[in-house]
Automatic annotation (TrEMBL):
Alphabetical UniProt keywords: Isomerase
Keyword Cell inner membrane annotated: no
GO molecular function: 5-carboxymethyl-2-hydroxymuconate delta-isomerase activity
Protein name per UniProt: 5-carboxymethyl-2-hydroxymuconate isomerase
Origin superkingdom: Bacteria
Entry-linked PANTHER family: 4-HYDROXYPHENYLACETATE CATABOLISM PROTEIN
Entry-linked Gene3D superfamilies: Macrophage Migration Inhibitory Factor
Originating organism: Streptomyces indicus
Amino acid sequence: MPQITVDHPAQLTDAFDRRGFALALHPLVVEIAGARLAACKTRFRTTEENVVGDEAAGPGVLHIEIALLAGRSEETKKQLATAAVELAGKFVAGTSVAGHVSAEVRDLDGSYAKV
């Protein structure tokens, strides 16, 4: 915990500083949600195709999902989601993804297990 997953379009692979984003996001998760830095884990998944509305082509969708153990307020989750979206724009060089960046902060349910 926290489990962070970032889906990003294939065309951003070279322009998106993924490691830099994760290393900047982790301290925000600690500050805003009270997580432990050593517990922050981020993985990145490349999406081959995204369709937004009726766009024939575009930069695609960059979506950040942050899953936390239950107990944070809705306000804390909203603050973290907003911070993650704002931060993402700083790590995508020379592209215009601003209209297609989203984040969701959710609770891990009782089925979560780790080793």
